[in-house]
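Input/output pair, single chain:
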Amino acid sequence: MVYEIEQTSDIQQHAMRWRMEDGSALDDEEWHANVGRLLDQWRPEHRPDFHSGLSVRVDDGVERTVLAAGPHFALERWRAGTPAPLVRELTTAHVLSNAGAAVTVETNGWSGRLDRARSLLLPAALGRVRVHGPADVLFGYLPDLERDVRAPLLAAGHGAAAVAALGEGAGGGDGARGTEGGGPADGC
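Output:
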């Protein structure tokens, strides 16, 4: 299974020789300009090596693994090996994706089945979601890096360097949510 989250944007840049909107051909000047803009944004400096994330035990039988984190996006994998519900507080909107067997999702009086490789958008106004396990799910969201990522991982005994390897901005600095330009590629 391949998992990708993209941020919507008013800017379209690509290296193809056609327009994505309608498939019509680009002239050489427009195509070269597109490639030039892509190269202007390219950052070839070292990227963190791949790792399987940093885990924190949440509850008996529930494990939270932060896979990637940055100022604009965090991705976590939550696993519950028992039928007891996995409970997640929603302080921002979350994308809940199921990576395992079908689960039951419950929030604010609503309950429904979420099959493997399916996703739900959960607004922050719901306040809390329960996923009845056994479960293997992904949560994507806009983090407060200090509260949601750094503090819990450091408290669980993970070193500062390991936390920093999760993505740009995860290692320290301003704990507020990112508000400047950029998107998921900047943080994860």
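The first strand starts at residue 54 and ends at 59. Confidence is low (pLDDT under 50) at residues 174-188.
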